[in-house]
UniProtKB/TrEMBL annotation:
This is Beta-xylosidase. The keyword Metal-binding does not apply. SUPFAM superfamilies: Arabinanase/levansucrase/invertase, Concanavalin A-like lectins/glucanases. Gene3D superfamilies: 2.60.120.200, Glycosyl hydrolase domain, family 43. Residues 331-514 form the Beta-xylosidase C-terminal Concanavalin A-like domain. Belongs to the glycosyl hydrolase 43 family.
Length: 521
């Protein structure tokens, strides 16, 4: 790995460190670089790996897989989907020059363990265990490989030395029974979200619980042996900030890397200073850290895209070799993820250089069962996304545009019929869609914008269109956004095109541009 300049974490800490949906984080340090994995469930490629030099600024450098499985759930076939059921709560570790990542999938009913020797650019080798080991955490310990997991009762199971299978006759027992009880008897969510770390010869297990009527609470336990007696205490009970482990810096400081439920934008990562007292990692009050409530910045895990990848590779023989160029692997930037498995035959950056082409190859009932919906995270305190769209090849019954995507969604787009094209604003969910406003047009190039306001959990999205990229018109009504468990994900910008009557139509997106400010209401 390329060596980088170390930066002190103590400079300008603001929470959340990323005001966007980056949940279930697991952070490690390797030399002077930090790496973080997170949950993206039904999005592909999946399990992003992010890198930082200071624990504050993060960028995506790789994904663990392109697609995890190819069943009806992942392909949105036969009325099935894997919303909220893809890959959950990964565990990232580094041992003997190899990176390991474990992750469970409820739709596959498996737990996967991936390995690579190049976390930033390498491919990951995959093995699998039958069943879901809920919120697992890996530990490599003096020739043994353990996996801690479970809810309520926290368990350990031993893996083979290559971490590819369950070890016959290996350790397999409950190590912390009724782990929630140290936060009181009024248990809502039993303890889960295990992170195990061995530090100075002691075993530390970090968990969360959620007492009824209270907030998410961080717990910590310690023992002098992996299956010994664990003593526990509350690590942090403040504003629901919980779930994660701790990491040391290059100069010896320690921090907890946790997250907070933050309304419709999703679950946002927080950094909390840690000081050691009597062998306990004491989590300091988060109010000792500056909050970035007024901070306006586009996180590096979100980006505009002019879709110029083909133009950048263009050469004199390009027009005669489009398929060859496509085969050479034009790729979207790592900030993008597809909703469920994409169909590679139905999107292109090379068929029209400078544009993203989304093609229809099947019929869909709604946005939520549409393949090749391309997404990025939204972010707070507010943000705006804009697209330019060329629509002259749409077919009767096609819809294409820009959406605020979650289970309760809204979009502004173009609806094509046999007689005309209309701009339409739609609100919908998994049960129904409603057209709020329809405006006939004759133009074959249109512009759409969606503004997101997450300040103080206002959680509203506003929709606009333009025919000349200068004059913007509000359309429909605001979407009252709501974080829902069926999708288990913060709202996303979503570029889409789907057919309801006949396939083979397509649209061309000229660009996607993101901004950290919105139109004043």
């Amino acid at each position: 790995m390329e060596k980088q300049a170390y930066q002190s974490v103590k400079v300008n800490i603001e929470n959340p460190i990323i005001w966007a949906d980056v949940p279930d984080i697991d952070v490690i340090r390797v030399g002077d670089a930090y790496y973080m994995s997170s949950t993206t469930m039904h999005m592909n490629p999946g399990v992003p790996v992010m890198k930082s030099s200071d624990l504050i600024q993060w960028e995506i450098v790789n994904y663990v897989y392109d697609i995890l499985e190819e069943n009806d759930e992942q392909l949105l076939n036969n009325g099935k989907n894997e919303y909220g059921l893809g890959s959950w709560a990964s565990s990232l570790r580094f041992h003997n020059d190899t990176f390991y990542l474990a992750v469970a999938s409820f739709s596959a009913d498996k737990t996967f363990i991936f390995q690579t020797d190049n976390i930033e650019n390498g491919k990951w080798k995959k093995s699998s265990l039958n069943g879901v080991y809920h919120d697992m955490s890996l530990l490599f310990d003096e020739g043994h490989v353990y996996m801690i997991y479970g809810g309520g009762d926290i368990k350990v199971i031993e893996l083979t030395s290559d971490a590819t299978a369950i070890k016959d006759g290996g350790l397999n027992k409950v190590i912390i029974p009724n782990a929630s009880l140290i936060a009181g008897p009024n248990v809502g969510l039993p303890a889960e979200g295990a992170h195990i770390q061995k530090i100075n010869g002691m075993y530390y297990v970090f968990l969360i619980t959620w007492p009824k009527g209270e907030g998410r609470t961080q717990l910590m336990f310690r023992s002098d042996s992996i299956d010994g007696v664990y003593e526990g205490r509350i690590a942090l009970d403040d504003a629901g900030i919980a779930q994660g482990g701790i990491v040391d810096t290059f100069d010896g400081d320690w921090y907890a890397m946790l997250f907070q439920d933050c309304g419709a934008v999703g679950r946002t990562p927080f950094i909390v200073p840690v000081e050691w007292e009597d062998g306990w990692p004491i989590h300091k009050n988060i109010h000792d850290v500056k909050h970035g409530s007024s901070n306006r910045v586009i996180p590096a895990i979100v980006s505009s895209d002019e879709f110029d990848q083909a133009l950048e590779k263009q050469n004199p023989t390009y027009l005669a070799n489009i398929e060859v160029l496509q085969d050479k692997g034009l790729k979207l930037p790592l900030v993008w993820q597809w909703n469920h498995n994409p169909d590679p035959a139905l999107w292109s950056l090379s068929e029209r250089p400078g544009y993203l082409r989304l093609k229809n190859g099947r019929l869909s009932d709604s946005l939520l069962d549409t393949r090749n919906v391309l997404t990025q995270r939204t972010f707070g305190p507010e943000c705006s996304g804009q697209v330019a769209l060329e629509i002259n090849h749409m077919k009767d019954g096609d819809l294409a545009g820009l959406a605020a995507l979650q289970e309760n969604y809204g979009f502004v787009g173009v609806k094509a019929t046999s007689n005309e094209k209309c701009i339409v604003m739609v609100l919908g969910n998994s049960k129904q869609e409603q057209e709020i406003e329809i405006i006939p047009i004759t133009s074959n190039r249109v512009y759409f914008k969606v503004d997101f306001d997450f300040k103080n959990m206002i959680d509203q999205a506003y929709f606009y269109y333009s025919l000349n990229e200068v004059e913007w018109h509000s359309i429909g009504k605001p979407l009252q956004m709501k974080y829902t468990i069926p999708h288990f994900m913060g709202y996303r910008f979503a570029l889409f095109n789907y057919a309801t009557k006949t396939s083979n139509g397509f649209v061309d997106f000229d660009y996607f541009r993101v901004n950290e400010t919105i139109i004043e209401k």
